[in-house]
Amino acid sequence: MMALVFGLLTATLLLFGSFVDAAPCADCFTQSRAAYYPNSDDKGTETGRCGFGAFGATINNGDVAAVSDLYRDGLGCGACYQVRCTNGKYCSDKGVNVVITDHGSSHDTDFIMSRRAFGRMAQNVDAGASLLALGVVDIEYRRVPCSYPNTNITIKIDESSSNPHYLAFVIWYQQGMEDITAVQLCERRRKGSQMQRKLNISYSKYNFAFYTQTQSYSCKLLDRSYGAVWTATSPPSGPLSVRMLLSDENGDEKWIVPVNDIPDNWKAGDIYDSGAQVIA
Ligand SMILES: *[C@@H]1O[C@H](CO)[C@@H](O)[C@H](O)[C@H]1NC(C)=O
Ligand SMILES: *[C@@H]1O[C@H](CO)[C@@H](O)[C@H](O)[C@H]1NC(C)=O
């Protein structure tokens, strides 16, 4: 389904290999600071500003974080970062990969991590306890793909939805390094059957099977309500295709067309497998 064009980037790097040092490098770590949720029971918060709900506390086994500037008005929701602390006495080289599910900052931090994620930056359990005792530590971070093995991009109908008047949903499990910068809601055109009949008439003598290929959709761009929540008032009544525009840091864009539609009898709380995923 989705194979993203990393080839182009690779080719560019090879071609201009000698200039790479001067260019801002995508793989480089950025220096910053991190704290952890003060009242956290190990995992993240269920009321994060991304609108993920309880899922926002437990996704990625609870290795989640709130970010300040990286929240980017909700664009940053669901992005993954490798975060490692820099104190050689306690910290591992690998650090931990966190998923962004919330917005917030304290003590000049870029990240407020779940307790679990914060402790996992350490070399071992004892070092983890020492890190937690420090409360705020120096870190470095970089964007990485998320890892959701055997999981497709998933649409969760928000509890605030009410069929047929108002549809709000959240997109889970997009594992690429791209942001979802726009979402279209598409319905199969009802006029399609008219069109099919016409084509059947004009082409039947040639035995063409055009009628199977005349699916046409009408789409409208949705508003990002906040975080990762997209909304539509008076959504179309048929089965709905939720298309997502992925944009990478170079400005390259690509629409993802899901394999599965949301059925017309969708209801609040339902979870739908899109059948599509980004190969990270
Ligand atoms: C078009 O023709 C095919 C084959 O004859 C038929 O099965 C199908 O029902 C027709 N479709 C429409 C919309 O009339
Ligand atoms: C993901 O989507 C593919 C293609 O639609 C499907 O075959 C597969 O079963 C889905 N995976 C899961 C874990 O649901």
From TrEMBL:
Pfam family, one: Expansin_C
Superkingdom field: Eukaryota
Domain Expansin-like EG45: 47-151
Signal peptide per UniProt: 1-22
Family matches, as CDD domains: DPBB_EXLB_N
Keywords attached to this entry: Signal
Domain Expansin-like CBD span(s) in chain numbering: 165-274
GO CC annotations, alphabetized: extracellular region
This protein's record includes keyword Secreted: no
The UniProt record lists the keyword Signal: yes
Similarity section: Belongs to the expansin family.
Protein name as annotated: Expansin-like EG45 domain-containing protein
Organism name: Salvia splendens (Scarlet sage)
Taxonomic lineage of the native organism: Eukaryota, Viridiplantae, Streptophyta, Embryophyta, Tracheophyta
